[in-house]
Model the fold of this input.
Amino acid sequence: MEKIEKLKSFLINSPGDSFLKHALALEYIKLGEEAEARKLFLEILEHDPSYIGSYYHLARLLERTGETENAKNWYERGMIAAKQAGDIHAYNELQAAYEDFID
Done:
């Protein structure tokens, strides 16, 4: 809980910081607060679609909660964003997760 409070306090000073929001979302996942994590990932990707790491974590979250079509869509969107950014490592991770998911 201490990490969450710290991250929230940092976000007060930097409300648009995607890194801080992403870190907070991951902390929420650890606590099983997936609705809060989902909200943050969506917020990040709405305002900063080049924040590639959030695509993977949002898609995994949706996969775990049974939202298969939505998860598939976010994996695909993430692969497109990673390819556009030239981030081959992220693209390969997203592609591997996507292929495991659809098999």
